[in-house]
C-alpha cells in the first residue's frame, strides 16, 4: 500500500507476437517503489513472457517498457545490478556449497548482503556448508530467493515461485517474501496462477488473461469492481428458482414486492474474487 | 578488470571442486589409463628404427590432452546451458563474461593437471625425454599456451552452436576420428598421404608435434613428416585456429546468451525429465 511512491516499473501497451500468434496484446500496468505486485493469470496468459521482457531476457514486439528508468532491451550491467531475479533452479551449481555460492555471486554487486546474514534470513543456516545438490526442493528454493536478493535489489522478480511446493514449503516461502517486502524498500513483481498466493502476498493484483490485463487493483477492489453477478436462489410454489444479478438487494426487493411471503428458502450468494477468477480461467481454457 | 578477477576466482573454485572428493576418481581415470597403455607398449620399436614407441607416444598424448580441453569446454557449455547455470550468469551483472573466464580458467587448470599427472610418472616410465633443458620447457610452454587458447576458443564457439549435451556427445565422434589420424599413438608417416593431409588441418597433430619437439632429442625429428619439427608451421596452424576461435566465439556466445530465458530452461528441463521418465 504505497500509493505515493515513485513509479519504478512502467509498462505501456506491451505487445509480443510469435509468428502470427499474439501472446501479449497491449499490456499496461505500473508498480511503485516498495509495492508487492502480483501478476495473476491462468497458464498461457502471458505472465512469463511479460516478466521475461521486464527482466531483459526477451525482446518485445511493440510497446513501451520502463524498468528502474531504463528500457530492459538496452539495460546495461549497472542497470542489471539493481535487479534481483529469482530463477527456478533445477540443478545448476550443484557442487557449490551454499555459503560459497552466495559469497561468490555477491561479489558481482557493489553492495551485496553478507552471505551468512542472508543465509540466516532465508533460514538455511544449518545448511550453509552443504552442497547445493544435497538440498531438498524447498531448501533450494530458499537459496534461489537468497540469490535473487544477494545484490540488495531495488526490484525483485519472482516467476511462479511456488510451483511444485508442498503446503508447508509454500507457507514458509510466503513468510520469507512478506518479510523481505516489509523490511526493505524492495519492489516485488511476482507471477502466479494461484489466487490465494496473490491475495496473501500482494498489495496489488494485476489479472492477465489471453495477453490482456483484465483487472488491476487490491484484492478488495477486484472483488468489488470486476465482480460479477451475485446468485439469488428461492422457492416459489414448490419450485426452485436461481437467478444471477448485478444488484442482489434490488432484485430481492422486487421479488418480495411481486410475490410477498410466497417466497421461501431465499439464499443470496455474493460473487467472490475466486468465482470471478475461476470464470476467467475457464474462459481462457475454453479458447485454448 | 573486476569481472576478470571474479571470473578467475570462479574458475579456481570450480577447479578445486573438480579435484576434490569423488570427482577426483573421474579426473584421474583417463590420464592413468593412458599411462598404463603407454607402460605396456613403451618398448615396442617403430619400423626397425631402434626408436621406441613409448618416447614417441607420451609427448603426443600430452598434445592430445591439450586438445581434449576443447571437448571439455563444449560439454560444460551445453550442460550448463541446459541446467540453468548460464541463465543464472545472465541474470547477474557481468555474469556471462565472468562465467566464460571462469570456465576457461577451470578447463585450463584441468588440462594442466592432466599434463602433470601424465608427465611426472611418464618421465620415469619412458626413456629419452629431454626434460633438463630450458629450451624444451620454453617450447612446451608456448605450444601448450597457444594450444589452450586455440582449442578452448574453438570449443566455446562450438559449444555455443551445439544445441544440447546429446549433440555435444555426438560431436566427440569426429574429434576422436581426428585424434586417430593425428599421429598421437603411432607416427603419422605410417598413414596414407591424403589422411596425413587432413590431419594437418587440425590442431591435434600440431600439438603432438610441438610436444615431441619440446621433449624429444632433435635427432628424432627424422621420424616426422619432412624430417623436421616445423615450429613455424606449428605456430602458424595453432595461431590460425586461435585467431579464428577468438573472432568467432564472442559473436556466437553473445547470440547464445541472448537467447537464454527462464522459459527456455524450463523447456530443457521438461525435455530432460521426459527422457529420464
TrEMBL record, chain B:
Its main location: membrane. It is found in: Membrane. It is a multi-pass membrane protein. GO terms for molecular function: ABC-type transporter activity. Keywords: Antibiotic resistance, Membrane, Transmembrane, Transmembrane helix. This is ABC transporter permease. GO terms for cellular component: ATP-binding cassette (ABC) transporter complex. The keyword Iron-sulfur does not apply. GO terms for biological process: response to antibiotic. Residues 22-256 form the ABC transmembrane type-2 domain. It comes from Actinomadura harenae. InterPro entries: ABC2_TM (IPR013525), ABC2_TM_bact-type (IPR047817), ABC_2_transport (IPR000412), Nod_factor_ABC_transporter (IPR051784).
Amino acid at each position: 500500500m504505497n500509493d505515493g511512491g515513485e513509479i519504478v516499473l512502467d509498462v505501456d501497451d506491451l505487445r509480443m507476437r510469435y509468428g502470427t500468434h499474439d501472446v501479449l496484446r497491449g499490456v499496461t500496468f505500473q508498480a511503485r517503489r516498495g509495492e508487492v505486485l502480483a501478476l495473476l493469470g491462468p497458464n498461457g496468459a502471458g505472465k512469463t513472457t511479460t516478466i521475461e521482457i521486464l527482466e531483459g531476457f526477451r525482446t518485445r514486439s511493440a510497446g513501451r517498457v520502463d524498468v528502474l528508468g531504463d528500457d530492459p532491451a538496452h539495460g546495461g550491467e549497472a542497470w542489471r545490478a539493481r535487479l534481483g531475479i529469482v530463477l527456478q533452479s533445477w540443478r545448476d551449481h550443484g557442487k557449490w556449497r551454499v555459503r560459497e555460492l552466495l559469497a561468490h555471486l555477491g561479489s558481482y554487486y557493489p553492495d551485496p548482503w553478507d552471505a551468512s546474514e542472508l543465509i540466516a534470513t532465508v533460514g538455511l543456516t544449518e545448511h550453509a556448508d552443504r552442497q547445493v545438490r544435497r538440498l531438498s526442493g524447498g531448501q533450494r528454493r530458499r537459496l534461489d530467493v537468497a540469490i535473487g536478493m544477494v545484490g540488495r535489489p531495488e526490484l525483485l522478480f519472482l516467476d511462479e515461485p511456488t510451483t511444485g511446493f508442498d503446503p508447508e514449503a509454500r507457507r514458509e516461502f510466503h513468510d520469507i517474501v512478506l518479510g523481505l517486502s516489509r523490511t526493505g524498500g524492495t519492489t516485488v513483481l511476482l507471477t502466479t496462477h494461484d489466487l490465494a498466493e496473490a491475495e496473501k502476498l500482494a498489495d496489488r493484483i494485476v489479472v492477465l488473461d489471453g495477453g490482456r490485463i483484465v483487472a488491476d487493483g487490491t484484492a478488495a477492489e477486484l472483488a468489488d469492481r470486476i465482480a460479477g453477478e451475485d446468485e439469488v436462489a428461492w422457492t416459489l410454489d414448490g419450485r426452485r428458482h436461481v437467478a444471477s444479478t448485478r444488484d442482489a438487494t434490488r432484485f430481492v426487493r422486487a421479488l418480495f414486492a411481486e410475490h410477498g411471503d410466497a417466497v421461501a428458502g431465499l439464499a443470496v450468494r455474493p460473487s467472490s474474487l475466486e468465482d470471478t477468477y475461476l470464470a476467467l480461467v475457464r474462459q481462457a481454457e475454453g479458447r485454448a | 578488470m573486476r569481472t576478470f578477477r571474479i571470473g578467475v576466482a570462479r574458475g579456481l573454485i570450480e577447479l578445486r571442486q573438480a579435484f576434490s572428493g569423488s570427482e577426483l576418481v573421474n579426473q584421474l581415470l583417463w590420464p592413468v589409463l593412458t599411462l598404463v597403455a603407454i607402460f605396456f607398449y613403451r618398448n615396442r620399436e617403430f619400423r626397425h628404427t631402434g626408436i621406441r614407441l613409448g618416447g614417441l607416444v607420451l609427448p603426443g598424448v600430452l598434445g592430445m590432452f591439450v586438445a581434449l580441453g576443447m571437448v571439455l569446454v563444449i560439454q560444460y557449455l551445453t550442460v550448463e546451458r541446459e541446467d540453468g547455470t548460464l541463465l543464472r550468469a545472465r541474470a547477474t551483472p557481468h555474469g556471462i563474461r565472468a562465467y566464460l573466464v571462469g570456465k576457461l580458467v577451470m578447463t585450463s587448470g584441468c588440462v594442466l593437471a592432466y599434463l602433470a599427472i601424465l608427465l611426472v610418472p611418464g618421465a620415469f616410465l619412458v626413456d629419452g625425454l629431454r626434460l633438463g633443458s630450458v629450451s624444451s620447457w620454453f617450447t612446451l610452454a608456448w605450444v601448450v599456451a597457444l594450444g589452450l587458447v586455440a582449442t578452448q576458443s574453438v570449443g566455446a564457439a562450438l559449444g555455443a552452436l551445439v544445441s544440447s549435451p546429446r549433440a555435444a556427445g555426438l560431436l566427440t565422434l569426429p574429434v576422436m576420428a581426428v585424434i586417430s589420424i593425428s599421429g598421437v599413438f603411432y607416427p603419422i608417416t605410417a598413414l596414407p598421404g591424403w589422411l596425413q593431409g587432413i590431419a594437418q588441418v587440425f590442431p591435434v597433430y600440431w600439438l603432438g608435434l610441438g610436444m615431441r619437439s619440446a621433449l624429444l632429442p632433435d635427432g628424432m625429428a627424422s621420424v616426422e613428416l619432412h624430417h623436421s619439427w616445423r615450429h613455424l608451421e606449428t605456430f602458424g596452424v595453432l595461431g590460425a585456429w586461435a585467431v579464428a576461435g577468438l573472432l568467432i566465439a564472442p559473436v556466437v556466445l553473445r547470440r547464445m546468451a541472448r537467447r537464454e530465458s527462464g522459459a527456455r530452461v524450463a523447456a530443457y528441463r521438461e525435455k530432460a525429465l521426459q527422457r529420464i521418465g
